[in-house]
Design goal:
The chain has one domain: Globin-like. The protein is about 70% helix and about 0% strand. It is globular. The protein binds protoporphyrin IX containing FE.
């Protein structure tokens, strides 16, 4: 499931384009998530969404920077997964988050969102998710 060097580079480059527009990117992501999966909205009933958006982008950034040495952040992702159990998030919902995230990246990159970019992000998210949901076992 490891990514190639080229895939890691693609993910890092495209993520760097999200950083200057993090707040907007996160808002787009949650709007999309709630559009495709309205049942996830109540999970955020008491959440400060702008702050939540920044936390999400920050954590994604940490994971993206650690893709070459994913073992170094296994404990971080495992703890993140354990907290998500407490938030009432199910394993199935990670696939919905993946769809919304990839959609947001596609919207942001426009014509630069090639099949290679899609594949790289898909593999990166699957890797990050597999470690995060290991907390559910
Ligand atoms: C790998 C994927 C994910 C990442 C990187 C991620 C990241 C985060 C981060 C950084 C937080 C802030 C609080 C904390 O660190 O515990 C958080 C909270 C939360 N996330 Fe996620 N998350 C992911 C998947 C999901 C999924 C699949 C759902 C379900 C729709 C979800 C729903 C929530 C909820 C409900 C909160 C709590 C909000 C609150 O504090 O009120 N997350 N997430």
């Amino acid at each position: 499931m490891a990514l190639t060097d080229q895939q890691r580079q693609i993910v890092a480059e495209s993520f760097s384009r999200l950083i200057p527009i993090s707040e907007h990117a996160a808002a787009m992501f949650y709007d999309r998530l709630w559009e495709i999966a309205p049942e996830t909205r109540p999970l955020f009933h008491a959440t400060d969404m702008p702050q939540q958006g920044m936390k999400l982008m920050q954590t994604l950034g940490i994971a993206v920077r650690a893709l070459h040495d994913i073992d170094s952040i296994v404990p971080v992702l495992h703890d993140l997964g354990a907290r998500h159990i407490r938030y009432g998030v199910t394993v199935d919902q990670f696939a919905l988050v993946k769809d919304a995230l990839l959609w947001m990246i596609a919207q942001t990159l426009g014509e630069d969102y090639t099949p290679e970019v899609h594949e790289a992000w898909s593999d990166a998210f699957d890797l990050i998710t597999s470690i995060t949901v290991s907390a559910y076992e």
